[in-house]
Amino acid sequence: MRTNLYDLYARLRERFGYLDWWPGDTADEIVIGAVLTQQTAWTNVEKAIANLKRERLLSIAAISRAKVQRLERCVRPSGYYRQKARRLKGISARIMDEYGSLDGLLSLPGTELRKTLLGFHGIGKETADSIVLYAANKMAFVVDAYTIRAMSRIYGMDSGTKYDDMQRYFTDRLRPSIRLYKDMHAQFVELGKNYCRTRPLCADCPANRICAYSRNM
DNA sequence: ACCCAGGTGGCCC
DNA sequence: GGGCCACATGGG
Questions:
Q1: For residue A165, how many C-alpha atoms fall within 13 Å in the half-sphere facing its CB?
Q2: A36: which of A56, A57, A59, A97 is 20 to 30 A away, CA to CA?
Q3: pTM value?
Q4: How many other C-beta atoms are found inside a 10 Å radius of the C-beta of residue A8?
Q5: For residue A27, what pLDDT is reported?
Q6: pLDDT at position A205, please?
Q7: Which nucleotides of strand C lie within 7 A of protein CB?
Q8: Chain Cα centroid distance, residue A200
Q9: What are the average pLDDT values for consecutive 10-residue runs of chain A, which has 217 residues?
Q10: For chain B, which bases have at least one atom within 7 A of a protein Cβ?
C-alpha cells in the first residue's frame, strides 16, 4: 500500500497551517495535560487545568506536595478524576524524589527518558512519547486514536494496528525531525477533531482525493 | 437517553 | 501476546 505521507501532510498543512503545538506553555503543564487528556476531550482537560492553575497546583513540585483530595476536586472535570489525581501525585512525587525536578528527569537521553516514563504508574506509550516529544523536545513519534482512525479512514489501513507497528510505519517513512514529528501529530489531532469522525470522509475533508480508497468510500 | 472522547493497568487465558 | 473490563465527566 502506498500512503504518500508527505502528500497527506502537505494537504493538512494547507488546510490547518503550521501548528507545531502542544496546548500548554511550560513543561509542567504539558506533562500534566498529557495525563489528564487520556481518553478525555481536551475541553474537559482545560477546565481541570484552569482549576489547578487557580489553586497554584499547575506544577510537578506543587502536585507532589498536595493532598490527593484537593487534586481530585481540581481535576474532576477531566473524568477518571480519582485515578488521575492519584496517578498525578504518584508521578510527581517520584519525579521530585528521584530526579529533584522535572528538568532533571527531562534531561535524560530520549530513549532512557521514555523507558523511565513507562515505569511510572499511569504513563503508557502515548503519554510517554508525548512527554518526550513536547515537554523534553526529543525524538519520539506520537501515535494516538486520531492517528489510527485517520490512517484507517484515509488509506484503509487496519484499524486494529498496534501502537508500535503504527509508530514504526511513520518513523520508517518520515525524515527524523522533531519539528516534523510535532507538527504531524498536531495535524492529525486537528484533522480528527474536525473530520475523520465518519465514514465516508466528509466532502470537504482535506484528506479527500489523496488516494483511490478515499475517493471510493 | 444515549454515545463518545488525544489511554492505562489489572486480570485472565 | 491478545481480549475484556473499570475508570468518570461533559458535550453532541
A1: 8
A2: A97
A3: 0.95
A4: 22
A5: 98
A6: 80
A7: 2-3, 7-11
A8: 26
A9: 87 94 96 98 98 98 98 98 98 98 98 98 98 98 96 91 98 98 97 75 74 44
A10: 4-10
Q: Which residues put CB within 7 Å of chain C, the nucleic strand?
A: A 39-41, 43-44, 47, 76-84, 160, 162
Cell numbers placing A64: 507532589
